[in-house]
């Protein structure tokens, strides 16, 4: 039986790791893995999109697709929503200049 322990950082709860298991590494918080999932109401609040507009943009591949979190739950990565919002600002500024 493999012994188990955990690591702890100042950013959150203990993370379980297995001792003696090959190719398993503990996650160390970095900017790229501090992302969080947003549920649809939060995505709507942050973007200002209605539910129908959100799903229409997804169907047209103009907004990130949700990620399945469980059998009946989906979420969007904060970083993907932020990137989409930044791209909309950039496109609006570019059209104003041109």
Question: Would you give an account of this structure?
Answer:
The protein has helices spanning 40-47, 51-59, 78-97; strands spanning 4-7, 15-18, 37-38, 67-70, 73-77. The longest helix is centred in the last third of the chain and has 20 residues, at 78-97. It has 98 residues and is an alpha+beta fold. 38% of the residues lie in helices and 19% in strands. Strand 1 and strand 2 form a beta hairpin. It has 2 domains: 1-33, no CATH class; 37-97, no CATH class. 5% of the residues are buried.
The largest sheet has its strands arranged as 3-5-4
Structural class: alpha+beta
Largest sheet: 3 strands, antiparallel
Number of domains: 2
Radius of gyration: 19 Å
* Helix run count: 3
N-end to C-end Cα span: 66 Å
Summed over residues and divided by their number, the pLDDT gives a mean of 81
List the helices and strands and how they pair.
Elements: E1 4-7, E2 15-18, E3 37-38, H1 40-47, H2 51-59, E4 67-70, E5 73-77, H3 78-97
Antiparallel strand pairs: 1-2, 3-5, 4-5
Feature tags:
single chain; 98 residues; alpha+beta; 2 domains; three-stranded antiparallel β-sheet; two-stranded antiparallel ribbon; 5 strands; globular
Short description:
With 98 residues, the chain is an alpha+beta fold. It has helices at residues 40-47, 51-59, 78-97; strands spanning 4-7, 15-18, 37-38, 67-70, 73-77. The chain folds into two domains: 1-33, no CATH class; 37-97, no CATH class.
